């Protein structure tokens, strides 16, 4: 049975394996003797195009870079309205929109049995070697990782956010993640704070957690000094206007700063439930000409808004990585942010200044920043940040994780059952029972839809396509 | 296989082994730079490196308080008191219903209790200016309530004529359980200063009214309801002031109440008395012990990943 899933060197056509220097395995410390393999990766998540956001962009960019390195990548997500079935995106990225009931807040409803047939079918027909789940609150990612481990396929999980411990929804989500990661799944976190948080929540060994940061498309965010008004020092902030993003702090600090520095003005983009408080503050202190509310800013227009500013303000109360400040620095703005979560790790001291999350200190740092931002060279900032975070580097580091996963041996069933001993006496019993029932379900599926009768999917001819693209560009 | 051959072909001349060893030594002597918790530069450590400074800012159980057995037992005495008082009330009803408690005795006990209770309340209550006005107001309230109950007593006696006994007993049990559950123990323990448990008071009064409707004469109903008013509406105030005044008196009062209730139950049924004894032992001494055993599992984690708290939240 294992033969069908393993891709041997002879099976692949057009193998132009890249010769790279020897690398040490991060888990065993030994040199990797085999040449780089072409992996067949399935990214699985609830959050993908057509919905737009940080996680969606992350998955898309990562998939594109992996495709350019020679791997085959598919994406599995749930259907969006009429959009179901198989679609293709740039460079042959195949997307499966599987039928799954969508829950509010873009995720989907959790199931134990429903999605196993279709996911098993996809994994087998595409000969998937690695399943990569994204975002903890995405139920489909958990299901994909669980099903993959039962089928013997390696799995990796990426965690993008920070979670608490106290409230009931956090407890449930943490237990869900702990269960998904039981069977030797490697976790990738986007910052060191996220790693600490994840290790505490899921009781994983820290050596099974890698830190690989995010990046963004810096070519879209280029500085344009002509756009900013030289008479004013403009402070830009583009966020959703809700409690978590620290709008209360913003409402308190704007009057202080406007009073202290006469030529400062604010541009606030974004919409949300706390917008009314900003409007009330503007009316109370008579700052109509100093504060501009733009409302909801489309993703395409964000660079246009950012280049109008000199300083970027981020008042989030919790943030695991914060891509917004990378975009701001790429446009040449100096950043003032609250010292929460993973933000202190992202940028060096000459690009950002931190403040505790109270309005007086933030106002103080903003006033100091109005002096510092005059010395800032926007093109230098853009060049620097471009070298710090690069999608190709992230793809290479993710590939190292994949290499190590593939070297791990596949444990026999009895040992896998031992992993479910967590959760106390009754919890362990319950977990083991569910595990055995799921295996029975897989066995039933194997009998009804045997492996050797599955038609393998035809791969998109990525190499030929990329070569053709290159030729066209050169011509 | 072809790849390895290609590698060897491209290798060309091999590096002499001595030079390689020297290079290795040089590299080993160059100390590795310490790991920094930043993401913007490539560090010479693998991605899953776990430094000594891992979780150095984590704080465990910063606000958790270890409670002692004495503290917990003392707090549990208010529950024991409440339980004893409810059981005592039921026992009194039992005797009234079976005509083993003569009306005269009941009236005398009631009057003594209310006078004694009021005097003790005036003594133990702090921040109380004993002026003529205050006492007059209290007496006025008493008079109004007792007069209205007296007037309604004949109506209340025939309130549940059409309902069977079993329904009454079942309903009463349920209502007094609700009363025990939702009572304001924070006030009874002196932690709060305002008695606010409308649900439990309503349940108790409801229970006592339907119990009273099973009694035989109007005057009996009045005395019984006056007794229930003292027990459920007035005694919390007294017990609160006693607890605040002195812990020793609280323990003494609890012991007295328990002894009285136990003695009265024994006159009815010894099995119930034994059950009552063990139940009180469980509540007053067993539950504190189990809470102390559970305290070692308390885990309150704080760290840099926490959502920051804003002082002034706009609503």
From TrEMBL, chain A:
<comment type="pathway">
    <text>Glycolipid biosynthesis; glycosylphosphatidylinositol-anchor biosynthesis.</text>
</comment>
<feature type="domain" description="PIGA GPI anchor biosynthesis">
    <location>
        <begin position="78"/>
        <end position="167"/>
    </location>
</feature>
<keyword id="KW-0328">Glycosyltransferase</keyword>
<dbReference type="InterPro" id="IPR001296">
    <property type="entry name" value="Glyco_trans_1"/>
</dbReference>
<dbReference type="InterPro" id="IPR039507">
    <property type="entry name" value="PIG-A/GPI3"/>
</dbReference>
<dbReference type="Pfam" id="PF08288">
    <property type="entry name" value="PIGA"/>
</dbReference>
<protein>
    <recommendedName>
        <fullName>phosphatidylinositol N-acetylglucosaminyltransferase</fullName>
        <ecNumber>2.4.1.198</ecNumber>
    </recommendedName>
</protein>
<dbReference type="GO" id="GO:0006506">
    <property type="term" value="P:GPI anchor biosynthetic process"/>
</dbReference>
<keyword id="KW-0337">GPI-anchor biosynthesis</keyword>
<dbReference type="GO" id="GO:0017176">
    <property type="term" value="F:phosphatidylinositol N-acetylglucosaminyltransferase activity"/>
</dbReference>
<dbReference type="GO" id="GO:0000506">
    <property type="term" value="C:glycosylphosphatidylinositol-N-acetylglucosaminyltransferase (GPI-GnT) complex"/>
</dbReference>
<feature type="domain" description="Glycosyl transferase family 1">
    <location>
        <begin position="229"/>
        <end position="371"/>
    </location>
</feature>
<keyword id="KW-0808">Transferase</keyword>
<dbReference type="Pfam" id="PF00534">
    <property type="entry name" value="Glycos_transf_1"/>
</dbReference>
<dbReference type="InterPro" id="IPR013234">
    <property type="entry name" value="PIGA_GPI_anchor_biosynthesis"/>
</dbReference>
Automatic annotation (TrEMBL), chain B:
<feature type="transmembrane region" description="Helical">
    <location>
        <begin position="168"/>
        <end position="188"/>
    </location>
</feature>
<feature type="transmembrane region" description="Helical">
    <location>
        <begin position="103"/>
        <end position="124"/>
    </location>
</feature>
<feature type="transmembrane region" description="Helical">
    <location>
        <begin position="219"/>
        <end position="237"/>
    </location>
</feature>
<keyword id="KW-0337">GPI-anchor biosynthesis</keyword>
<dbReference type="InterPro" id="IPR009450">
    <property type="entry name" value="Plno_GlcNAc_GPI2"/>
</dbReference>
<protein>
    <submittedName>
        <fullName>Phosphatidylinositol glycan</fullName>
    </submittedName>
</protein>
<dbReference type="Pfam" id="PF06432">
    <property type="entry name" value="GPI2"/>
</dbReference>
<feature type="transmembrane region" description="Helical">
    <location>
        <begin position="136"/>
        <end position="156"/>
    </location>
</feature>
<feature type="compositionally biased region" description="Basic and acidic residues">
    <location>
        <begin position="12"/>
        <end position="22"/>
    </location>
</feature>
<feature type="transmembrane region" description="Helical">
    <location>
        <begin position="195"/>
        <end position="213"/>
    </location>
</feature>
<keyword id="KW-1133">Transmembrane helix</keyword>
<feature type="compositionally biased region" description="Basic residues">
    <location>
        <begin position="23"/>
        <end position="32"/>
    </location>
</feature>
<keyword id="KW-0812">Transmembrane</keyword>
<comment type="pathway">
    <text>Glycolipid biosynthesis; glycosylphosphatidylinositol-anchor biosynthesis.</text>
</comment>
<feature type="region of interest" description="Disordered">
    <location>
        <begin position="1"/>
        <end position="32"/>
    </location>
</feature>
<keyword id="KW-0472">Membrane</keyword>
<comment type="similarity">
    <text>Belongs to the PIGC family.</text>
</comment>
<feature type="transmembrane region" description="Helical">
    <location>
        <begin position="74"/>
        <end position="97"/>
    </location>
</feature>
């Amino acid at each position: 049975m294992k033969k069908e899933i393993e891709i041997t060197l002879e099976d692949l056509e057009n193998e132009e394996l890249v010769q790279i220097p020897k690398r040490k395995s991060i888990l065993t410390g030994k040199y990797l003797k085999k040449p780089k393999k072409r992996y067949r990766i399935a990214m699985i998540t609830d959050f993908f195009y057509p919905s737009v956001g940080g996680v969606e962009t992350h998955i898309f960019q990562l998939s594109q870079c992996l495709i350019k390195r020679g791997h085959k990548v598919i994406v599995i997500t749930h259907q969006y309205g009429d959009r179901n079935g198989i679609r293709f995106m740039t460079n042959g990225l195949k997307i499966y929109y599987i039928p799954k009931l969508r829950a509010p807040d873009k995720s989907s409803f959790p199931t134990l049995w429903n999605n196993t047939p279709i996911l098993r079918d996809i994994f087998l027909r595409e000969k998937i070697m690695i399943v990569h789940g994204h975002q903890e609150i995405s139920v489909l990612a958990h299901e994909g990782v669980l099903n993959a481990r039962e089928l013997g396929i390696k799995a990796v999980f990426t965690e993008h956010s920070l979670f608490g411990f106290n409230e009931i929804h956090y407890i449930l989500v943490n237990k869900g993640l702990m269960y998904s990661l039981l069977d030797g799944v490697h976790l990738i976190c986007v910052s060191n704070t996220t790693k600490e948080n994840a290790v505490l929540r899921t009781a994983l060994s820290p050596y099974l957690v890698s830190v690989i940061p995010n990046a963004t498309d810096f070519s879209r965010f280029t500085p344009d000094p002509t756009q900013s008004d030289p008479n004013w020092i403009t402070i830009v902030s583009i966020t959703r206007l809700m409690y978590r993003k620290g709008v209360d702090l913003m409402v308190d600090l704007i009057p202080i700063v406007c009073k202290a520095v006469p030529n400062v003005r604010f541009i606030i983009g974004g919409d949300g439930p706390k917008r009314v408080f900003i409007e009330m503050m503007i009316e109370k202190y008579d700052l109509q000409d100093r504060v501009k509310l733009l409302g909801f800013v489309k993703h395409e227009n964000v660079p246009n808004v950012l280049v109008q500013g000199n300083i970027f303000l981020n008042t989030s109360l919790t943030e695991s990585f914060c891509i917004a400040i990378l975009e701001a620095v790429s446009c040449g703005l100096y950043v003032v942010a609250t010292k929460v979560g993973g933000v202190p790790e992202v940028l060096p001291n000459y690009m950002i200044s931190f403040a505790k999350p109270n309005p007086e200190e933030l106002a103080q740092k903003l006033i100091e920043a109005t002096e510092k931002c005059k010395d800032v060279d926007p093109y230098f900032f853009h060049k620097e940040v471009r070298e710090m975070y690069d999608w190709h580097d992230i793809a290479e580091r993710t590939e190292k994780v994949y290499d190590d996963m593939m070297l791990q041996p596949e444990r026999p069933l009895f040992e896998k059952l031992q992993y479910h001993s967590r959760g106390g006496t009754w919890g362990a019993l319950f977990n083991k029972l569910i595990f055995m029932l799921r295996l029975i379900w897989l066995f039933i599926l194997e009998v009804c839809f045997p492996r050797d009768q599955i038609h393998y999917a035809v791969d998109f001819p990525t190499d030929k396509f990329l070569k053709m693209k290159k030729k066209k560009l050169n011509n | 296989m072809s790849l390895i051959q290609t590698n060897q072909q491209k290798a060309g001349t091999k590096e002499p082994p001595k030079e390689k060893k020297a290079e290795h030594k040089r590299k080993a002597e160059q100390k590795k730079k310490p790991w920094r918790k930043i993401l913007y530069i490539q560090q010479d450590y693998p991605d899953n490196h776990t430094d000594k400074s891992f979780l150095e800012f984590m704080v465990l159980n910063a606000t958790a308080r270890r409670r002692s057995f004495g503290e917990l037992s003392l707090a549990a005495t208010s529950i024991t008191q409440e339980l004893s008082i409810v059981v005592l009330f039921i026992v009194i009803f039992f005797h009234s219903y079976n005509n083993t408690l003569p009306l005269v005795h009941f009236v005398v006990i009631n009057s003594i209790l209310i006078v004694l209770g009021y005097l003790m309340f005036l003594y133990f209550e702090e921040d109380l200016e004993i002026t003529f006005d205050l006492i007059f107001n209290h007496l006025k309230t008493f008079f109004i309530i007792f007069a209205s109950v007296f007037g309604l007593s004949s109506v209340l006696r025939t309130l549940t004529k059409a309902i069977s006994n079993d329904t009454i007993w079942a309903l009463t049990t349920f209502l007094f359980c609700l009363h025990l559950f939702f009572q304001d123990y924070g006030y009874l323990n002196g932690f709060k200063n305002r008695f606010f448990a409308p649900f439990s008071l309503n349940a108790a009064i409801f229970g006592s009214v339907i119990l009273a409707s099973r009694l035989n004469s109007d005057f009996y109903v009045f005395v019984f309801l006056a007794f229930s008013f003292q027990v459920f509406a007035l005694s919390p105030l007294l017990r609160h002031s006693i607890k605040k005044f002195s812990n020793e008196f609280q323990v003494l009062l609890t012991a007295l109440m328990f002894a009285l209730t136990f003695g009265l139950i024994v006159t009815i049924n010894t099995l119930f008395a034994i059950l009552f004894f063990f139940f009180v032992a469980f509540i007053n001494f067993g539950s504190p012990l189990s809470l102390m055993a559970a305290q070692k599992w308390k885990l309150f984690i704080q760290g840099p990943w926490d959502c920051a708290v804003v002082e002034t939240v706009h609503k």
